[in-house]
UniProtKB/TrEMBL annotation:
InterPro entries: NCS2, UacT-like, Xan_ur_permease
NCBIfam families the record matches: ncs2, NCS2_1, pbuX
Protein known as: Nucleobase:cation symporter-2, NCS2 family
Annotated family: Belongs to the nucleobase:cation symporter-2 (NCS2) (TC 2.A.40) family.
Name of one Pfam family that matches: Xan_ur_permease
GO cellular component: plasma membrane
Organism, scientific name: Pisciglobus halotolerans
Keyword terms of this UniProt record: Cell membrane, Membrane, Transmembrane, Transmembrane helix, Transport
Entry's localization field: Cell membrane
Membrane spanning residue stretches: 54-74, 80-96, 108-130, 136-157, 164-186, 198-217, 229-254, 274-293, 347-365, 371-396, 408-426, 438-458
Membrane-topology descriptor: Multi-pass membrane protein
Length: 464
C-alpha cells in the first residue's frame, strides 16, 4: 500500500514538475503573461479587461440576431429584444464555459477564459427552416434546440477522438483559426462588406490609427496599460469617429431603456424536420470548438486534457439549448477573443467571467448596448487584424515544435491550402450535396477535416 501511494505521489510530483518546466520554457520563448489563468487582478483592472473582451466580441454577438430577425420579418421592438437576449445568453454561457460547473462526467465548461456568442454557421439553415420549409421563427427555435441535444451527446465522444489530434494537426488548426478570420478583419477595416464607402481613405486611416495605438501600447506600455491596449485603441478610434460624422446616435434614442428575457416569447415547434438542416452546423461547431479550445490552451499556457475539451463542447451544446428557449439562437465558442490573450498578455479566467457578467448586465439596458453596437467597423478592424494575427502566430509557434518531415509538411500544406481556399472562394463548395456542404462551407472545418484524414492515411516512415 505504502509503495503504491509513494508511486502515486511520485507521479503527481513529476506532473507538477513537468508543468512548471513547460511554463518556464514558454516564458523564455517570450510568451510571458501578465495575468495567468488563476490570477485575480484587482476589481478595476478586471472590469476594464472584461469590457475589452466585450468590445471585441460585440460585432459578432449582434450581427447574427439582426440577420435572423430580418429573416423572420421582425419589427424594431422584437429585433431589439432578440439582440438583448443574445447578449444575456452569451454572458451566462461565457461564465459557465470560463468557470466550469457540475460533477465529473457531467461537467459543463472547460474552465478556461472564453467568450461565447451566436454563430454565423447556423444562418443558412435558419433561412431554410424559417422561409423555405415554412417553419417560421418557432421552427427555427425548435430545430436548433433539438440539434443542441445532438451536440451535447457528441461531447461524450470527443475524448476518444482526441488521439487523432497530434501536434501537427492541432498546430495547423490553430494557425488556420487566425488565417481564416483575416477576411473578416479586412471587411471591418474597409467599413463592412457592401458599404458605399468601403475602403475609403478615412476608413483605412481610422483602422490604421487603432492598429498603431494597440501595437505601441502593447509593446511600450506599462504592466498595467499593456493588457488594456486593445480597449484604449478602440475607445480612441471611436471618439475620433464622432466629429467625423461616422456615429449615428439616433439609434440610441430609438432603443428601449429596459428589456428582460422571457421563456418562449416567440413560440417553439419541436418538429424533427426542422432539426435536420442544423445537423451539419452542429458537427462543424464540434470540430471548431475543439480547435478553439486547443488554441486557448496554447495561448493561456494551460494545456487542456481531453476531458476539458469535451466539457467545452458540452457548454456549447448547453448554450445552444437555452439560447433558443429564451428567444436568441445557438451559441459557439468565439475564436476571435482567443487572440486577445497573447496580444494583451492576460489569461485570467476571472476577466472572462467579468466579461460574461458585463454582457448579461448590458442585456437589461438596450440603450447601453446600442452605444457599442453603433461603433464604426473600421475601429474594430484595426484591432481585429492584430487579434486574429496573434492566433495565427500561436499556431505557427506550435508548429515550430513539430518535426517537418515529408509527411508532416504534406499535412500542413494541404490543410492550410484547402482551408484558406474555401475561405477565399466559398462558392467552390457551394454545390456539394447535403451534409458535405455544411462540413466544407467553413475554412476552419474544411482544413481540420483534411488534416485529420491525412494524419490517418499518411503513415510515418522509418528513420534511415
Amino acid at each position: 500500500m505504502e509503495e503504491k501511494l509513494s508511486q502515486s505521489l511520485s507521479a503527481i510530483d513529476r506532473k507538477k514538475l513537468q508543468q512548471v518546466t513547460e511554463r518556464r520554457e514558454r516564458e523564455q520563448d517570450g510568451l510571458e503573461l501578465t495575468y495567468h489563468i488563476d490570477d485575480k487582478p484587482d476589481l478595476f483592472t478586471t472590469t476594464i479587461l472584461g469590457f475589452q473582451n466585450v468590445l471585441t466580441a460585440f460585432g459578432g454577438l449582434v450581427a447574427v440576431p439582426l440577420i435572423i430577425a430580418g429573416m423572420a420579418g421582425f419589427g424594431v421592438a422584437d429585433t431589439a429584444y432578440m439582440i438583448s437576449t443574445a447578449l444575456f445568453v452569451s454572458g451566462i454561457v461565457s461564465i459557465i464555459q470560463s468557470k466550469g460547473i457540475g460533477p465529473k462526467g457531467f461537467r459543463i465548461g472547460a474552465g478556461v477564459p472564453t467568450i461565447m456568442g451566436t454563430d454565423f454557421g447556423f444562418v443558412a439553415p435558419a433561412n431554410a427552416v424559417i422561409n423555405t420549409m415554412g417553419g417560421g421563427i418557432a421552427g427555427y427555435f425548435g430545430g436548433t434546440m433539438l440539434g443542441a441535444l445532438l451536440e451535447i451527446g457528441l461531447s461524450y465522444f470527443v475524448k476518444p477522438l482526441m488521439k487523432f489530434f497530434p501536434p501537427v494537426v492541432t498546430g495547423t488548426v490553430i494557425a488556420l483559426m487566425g488565417m481564416t478570420l483575416m477576411p473578416v478583419a479586412f471587411d471591418w477595416v474597409g467599413g463592412g462588406a457592401g458599404a458605399a464607402d468601403f475602403g475609403s481613405p478615412i476608413n483605412l486611416a481610422i483602422a490604421t490609427l487603432v492598429f498603431v495605438i494597440i501595437i505601441a501600447l502593447n509593446h511600450y506600455g506599462s504592466q498595467r496599460i499593456g493588457p488594456a491596449a486593445v480597449l484604449i485603441g478602440i475607445v480612441v478610434g471611436y471618439l475620433v469617429c464622432i466629429p467625423l460624422g461616422m456615429v449615428d446616435f439616433s439609434q440610441i434614442a430609438a432603443a428601449d431603456w429596459f428589456a428582460f428575457p422571457r421563456l418562449f416569447k416567440f413560440g417553439v415547434n419541436f418538429d424533427l424536420r426542422f432539426a435536420i438542416p442544423f445537423v451539419a452546423g452542429y458537427l462543424v461547431t464540434v470540430i471548431e470548438t475543439v480547435g478553439v479550445m486547443q488554441t486557448i490552451g496554447e495561448v493561456t499556457q494551460h494545456p487542456l486534457s481531453d476531458e476539458d475539451i469535451a466539457n467545452g463542447v458540452r457548454a456549447d451544446g448547453f448554450g445552444s439549448f437555452i439560447g433558443p428557449a429564451l428567444g436568441s439562437g445557438p451559441v459557439a465558442t468565439f475564436s476571435q477573443n482567443a487572440g486577445l490573450i497573447p496580444l494583451t498578455r492576460n489569461a485570467s479566467r476571472v476577466v472572462a467571467i467579468a466579461a460574461g457578467v458585463i454582457l448579461a448586465g448590458m442585456s437589461f439596458f438596450p440603450k447601453l448596448a446600442t452605444i457599442i453596437s453603433i461603433m464604426p467597423l473600421p475601429v474594430l478592424g484595426g484591432a481585429g487584424i492584430l487579434m486574429f494575427g496573434t492566433v495565427a502566430g500561436a499556431g505557427i509557434k506550435s508548429l515550430s515544435r513539430v518535426k517537418f518531415n515529408n509527411r508532416n509538411l504534406l499535412i500542413v500544406s494541404a490543410s492550410i491550402s484547402i482551408g484558406l481556399g474555401v475561405t477565399f472562394r466559398p462558392e467552390v463548395v457551394a454545390g456539394l450535396p447535403g451534409i458535405l456542404n455544411g462540413l466544407f462551407s467553413s475554412g476552419i472545418s474544411a482544413g481540420t477535416i483534411v488534416a485529420l484524414v491525412l494524419n490517418l492515411l499518411l503513415k510515418e516512415k522509418a528513420e534511415v
